[in-house]
Design brief:
By secondary structure, the chain is of the alpha/beta class. Helix content is about 40%, strand content about 15%. It has an 8-stranded mixed β-sheet, sandwiched between helices. Strands 11-12-14-13-15-16-17-18 form an 8-stranded mixed β-sheet. The chain has a two-stranded antiparallel sheet with strand order 1-2. Strand 15, helix 19 and strand 16 form a beta-alpha-beta unit.
Length: about 650
């Protein structure tokens, strides 16, 4: 249990004293003036018999000792602490592979709207958040801030400028910022992003429109080639380019040697960002900005010597639902110098605009999902905008088959007979899309029920039964094949062989769950053939903490499969073979989880980062098998990707 005062905890191991302590504590609590539930509810929880019997640190020793002093004195102590304007907790938490430091205010824990603060270059909790947090309304809003990886107390390691697979470190930050908020349990929140942190904020708002209810930036700008000489000069000047007051603080935090190393990393990355043109006023970032659905506020200081006000105006005009606020005496760090105006502007925007706009945005998103918001329509750049939806289709294929034109047959691919389906439509000009199903996926169960939704004039749809599934039998599915790390890797040569056999030279891959592993390898091996990759229900690494869960599923056997899926699978394979296949899949999953190849940071990550074609990662927020953090990780690992997270599936 986390407590806002870092005092030595106590443990108790005397069950005989439970009832006495519990009765005394409850009597004492009832005598206190009404305090925030931070004290009332937590004290009842902490002194329950179950907690008292545990051997874990649960409560500050000083507070327990305080129970022995007169109630009036302790009441004053609690009141004094609870009314303090800076009631917060600061601690580290494991986020993916890093220890991330964050701070979180208490306030009204149940109704306060969360605001996540994303600092910019050299930004930290200590220097940029704590000095102004006394101005924040902590009853209406819950403020969360972090030290990005390599900054402040989120060290070691040091800040990874120009990380592999990313244009800049702010992109790299996205997966950690997103996962931190997942760990803290926040489903909807506003982003408050400063300077370079606005890049992280913009990507988060694009990736998770259902979670981000508002975006506020200040000191945000673009990276133009014209700025390269200026940044180069800053690099050559070294630490002397940093204002003295800021430099003194930074030197105290990092030491001069590390600070100089970080300064060189920052400036070199800025030069590379400008050269890439990705974050220029005419770069790819413009499409990202235009796709942001939530309300936005752009704040900028007219005396900002680093970012000209023209950047803020362009930034504001690029967002579809934004307003601009200019601070007359504001510098680049206006939050520290013009704090009252800054905080007032932020809180007024949220009060007046956010709640109504967010409800409306959610309604629009929901309507689009329910009416015509299509999977590939969202990805027009990949395919040109076909209109179809993934849904829980309960119709039998027979009721729709009369309107379909397709062929289903087997063809010899290498040493196996592979079953596949191919729509006819406009076979001359239609763009081919190859569907790669996941575990136990097949044409009969996963393609035919939704085939009637496909646009068969503009697109040629090809789907297969992977070796050992559906109609591609015998032989049975070869889990843990000798020639490959997984059966999905084994599938690659047959999937490529099938498309070669059909004479299809260029195509998009549409890959579900484990089939995404096959798709990622294919996109790596044949970049000249794979024009786009779309995944859903997919993962890019296997967390080792999932081994116990997989082992439990293996013990449960077929009972672990939902009825609606188990019944048709039993009909297709028979119970004996299905159980054999289930155990094979479970054993292979455990092997994958324990493998260095599929661990986070393993060699498979390099394959993901090397995918050149545009990608779209789709994920259901109610997916009980693959949690959303895996989709976030996969999306951030691709070099040219967007994420569509559906809250209704």
């Amino acid at each position: 249990m986390n407590w806002p005062i870092p005092i030595f905890p106590f443990t108790t191991s005397s069950p005989s004293s439970d009832n006495v302590t519990l009765s005394f504590t409850r009597a004492w609590i009832h005598g206190l003036p009404r305090a925030p539930d931070l004290y009332g509810a937590r004290l009842f929880h902490l002194f329950s018999p179950t907690v008292l019997r545990s051997s874990q640190p649960v409560f500050p020793y000083a507070f327990f000792q305080a129970l022995l002093v007169p109630r009036e004195e302790l009441s004053k102590l609690v009141q004094k602490f609870s009314s303090a304007s800076s009631a917060f907790k600061e601690r580290k938490v494991r986020v993916l592979d890093l220890e991330i430091n964050y701070i979180e205010t208490f306030g009204n824990r149940h109704n306060a709207h969360p605001i996540f603060v994303l600092p910019g270059a050299f930004g930290s909790i200590e220097m940029d958040f704590k000095p102004i947090m006394h101005e924040f309304n902590k009853e209406k809003y819950k403020w969360i801030a972090w030290d990005p990886p390599g900054y402040g107390k989120s060290r070691p390691p040091t800040r990874p400028f120009l990380p592999n697979g990313y244009v800049c470190v702010y992109e790299y930050d996205v997966k950690y910022a997103t996962e931190l908020m997942n760990i803290l349990g926040y489903q909807h929140y506003t982003l408050l992003a400063w300077s370079g942190g606005s890049i992280t904020g913009v990507i988060m708002a694009t990736n998770q429109p259902e979670k981000i209810s508002g975006l506020i930036t200040w000191g945000a700008g673009f990276f133009e080639t014209e700025a390269i000489p200026f940044v180069t000069a800053m690099k050559e000047v070294g630490l002397a380019a940093i204002p003295e007051s800021r430099r003194t603080q930074l030197t105290k935090m990092y030491g001069e040697e590390l600070l100089l190393e970080m300064w060189n990393g920052v400036t070199e990355e800025m030069i590379k960002m400008a050269e890439s043109k990705v974050y220029s006023k005419s770069g790819v970032i413009q499409d990202v900005l235009k796709n942001i659905q939530c309300p936005a506020l752009v704040i900028h200081g007219l005396k900002d010597a680093l970012i000209d006000v023209s950047h803020a105006k362009h930034f504001n005009s690029s967002l579809r639902n934004s307003r601009l606020h200019l601070v007359e005496n504001g510098t680049h760090n206006l939050h520290l110098r013009e704090t009252k105006e800054f905080v007032n502007c932020v809180q007024t925007f949220i009060d007046k605009n956010l709640s109504l706009s967010y409800d409306f945005t959610c309604l629009i998103i929901k309507m689009k999902r329910l009416i015509s918001f299509s999977l590939l329509g969202y990805s027009k750049k990949l395919l040109g905008g076909p209109q179809f939806q993934f849904r829980n289709v309960k119709q039998q294929f027979s009721s729709a088959s009369s309107s379909l034109a397709f062929t289903e047959k087997k063809v010899r691919v290498l040493d196996l007979d592979i079953n596949y389906i191919e729509t006819l439509g406009n076979s001359q000009n239609a763009h081919p899309i190859f569907i790669l199903p996941g575990t136990f996926g097949s044409i009969e169960m996963d393609v035919k029920p939704i085939l009637h939704e496909f646009n068969q004039e503009k697109y040629k749809w090809i789907a297969w039964d992977p070796p050992g599934y559906g109609g591609s039998r015998p032989p049975n599915r070869p889990f843990k094949p000798n020639s490959a790390e997984t059966v999905y890797e084994y599938d690659v040569k047959y999937a490529e062989g099938l498309m070669n056999k059909l004479g299809i030279e260029r195509y998009t891959l549409l890959a579900w769950s484990g089939g995404a592993l096959t798709g990622i390898i294919m996109a790596n091996k044949k970049p000249e053939k794979v024009s786009g990759l779309i995944t859903w229900g997919a993962f890019g690494y296997a967390g080792r903490n999932t081994v116990p869960g997989v082992e439990v599923m293996r013990k449960l056997g077929l009972a672990a499969i939902p009825d609606w899926r188990r019944i048709p699978l039993t009909k297709m394979y028979g119970e004996e073979l299905l159980l054999e296949m289930w155990n094979g899949w479970m054993d292979e999953s455990i092997k994958m989880v324990k493998s260095d190849v599929f661990k986070e940071g393993g060699t498979f990550q390099d394959l993901i980062k090397n995918v050149q074609c545009p990608t779209l990662v789709i994920h259901g927020l109610k997916d009980a098998l693959i949690v959303p953090s895996y989709a976030n990780h996969l999306n951030s690992s691709f070099r040219n990707s967007r994420l569509l997270a559906d809250p209704f599936s």
